[in-house]
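Intended use. Records like the one below are meant for learning the mapping from a protein sequence to its folded structure. Do not use them to infer anything beyond what is encoded.
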Amino acid sequence: MANESSPPLRGIIVQLRQAVPLVLFFLLLTNPDSLQAQSDVSNPFLPAGVVEEGWPAVRGRHFDAHSPEIHIADTWPAAGPPVLWVKELGQGYSAFVAEGDRVYTQGQNLQGQYVYCLDARSGKEIWKYWYDWPYELAGVYPGPRATPTLIEGRLLFAAPSGLLGCLDAATGKLLWSRNLVSEFKGDGGTGFGYACSPVVVDQLVIMPVGGPDASMVALHLQDGKTAWQAGSQPASYTPAMPITRNGRKLVVGYLENALVLHDLKTGELLLEHELSDGYDEHSSWPLYREPYLWIAAPFRAGSQLFEIPSEFEKDTRLKNIWRSRILSNDVLSSVLVGDQIYGFDIFDQQSKTQRPSRGKFRCINFLTGDELWEQGSGRPERSNNDTSDEIGQAGIIVADDKLIMLNERGELILLRINPTECEILARCSVLSGELTWTPPILHRGCVYIRNQSRAACIYVGKPELLPRQQQTFRVDEIPQEQYVDWAGQILSIEPEYAFDLPSNVWLWNWFFWSAGLLLASLLLALIPASLVRVEHRLLTWTVCYRTLAFLCGALGTTWISAWTREFVFTWPLCLYIAFDAVMAVVQFRRSRQRSRWRDYLPLLVFVGITTFYFLLCRRLSLVFEWAFLAGPIGALLPGLLDAQLPKEKFSGIGFSALLKLVTYAGFYGSGIVVFWLKY
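Structure written out for the chain above:
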């Protein structure tokens, strides 16, 4: 009997052995939490039982810049923390998002704007997706502004043009796209390019648009079709923020002139709280702890705390708990930790692209607005005081009882969370030489940062947790460029708002000062001209007045502004002097003696000066002053007339000087015409 039953028994045992792996696999599939828990064993930066969330959106999983990661190093060696990789990424303000072994961001080069997928540990490109031509390639704020969002294997991105796209996160294949600005006529609040990062909640993609009956828009994640649209307030640059009040899911819109609340599911506008009139802008994220909502604004407007009602009726309003001039936020947001807010209080009207922002880093009480401590000099406006030891304006991560920050100067700073004092644990320069407004992210013990040219992955975990096989190098081995505050050296007085058109009073004032400098140069040049022989007087006078006028035009913006305590722009005079030399070539051409350097050198110098002028204006955020590059149009006819006057002798030089003043008036006037036509 035993021998007869053995073969069937062995067969059953074999079948059971084969079935066990299938059963276990089925159990893992039906219990994804257990599958995730297995993967978390390899992530030593998460507490036991915590499921890895990655960093799927610009402010993390919960839109508050908090990370559950632990085992962050308490300090760094003098050479800085280990660097895993540094990569050229090009222009853009998009932060990274991360999931598993991949990170994603946006950027642009000469060929266009791209979404990048990189290997998190090596920085190697896995795929990239081209979606548009470069945006403001030579402008003040070049490149994409928004940060992508990861959700359920999909990657959503927003472009400065208003394009919203959805990609397969694994392959980079486009699944759907829509242009929100053009479809919903969202002109309000997008003057500097669309900057709202996608926010996804309950299969809905929530986007502030600012169009008629489309202040806020919700699209279905699956196909991009409109779920709802509501409100008519102009939008701004702060993304939508999901919150829960009394068990009800809501959407906060921090718009151009109002704070609004929508029902997440239906889009119903529940509350609209007016904040301002006319042009305004908001870029920083609100902070929420039920039932309180805190907002901060630029333009030295300070911050305020509201209480959101538990029920919404027709005349329901926000209750203002406190309002303070303390803690204005611009492009980088504050964080809430415990009962304290940590953030940079900007003293400038706006963040500047030409120098670090002026202000103080503060810690204030969330419920009262009282200041607990501050760090920084609080230097007055238009001061050139040294701020190298200040924290400055910085993007912030909250993790392991610490604040990990990347400031505008490219410094990585580690701060212990302490409501009683500012306790800096470590700091090092990582990406210096240019300003950055891109906030950092934290994923698996690594901080991912970038500026307008490069990106880097910095390991900030405890040294013993770094895998031995991981290749690293030191922070001090990254090629660093020293940041030079050219604005502080050149612009003794700055325009308060870089994007405000110069007033008519300013334009007339600039013209009279620069024309006065030209006239003084023409007259002063007569002195050395009278001291030389007659046949050399014309050449001496020409060389002297051009040299004097060019120097006066170059230095006048700095010196006259400092003297008058008002911004005076005299650089158009330098452009005119370079153009005047080109016009003189016409006179040389009338002569029988021809030489190549006389014909082409002035033109090459003019091209070089105009290029330098353009780049310097861009570097110093002198936005509208570029219009004076149109000067040759209005100066061409009087310049040609001046060039045709016989100048073999020094006689008639007075009429030539008068004609040069007229020519400069035409040169300057062309820039004014460009202002009127374009703006």
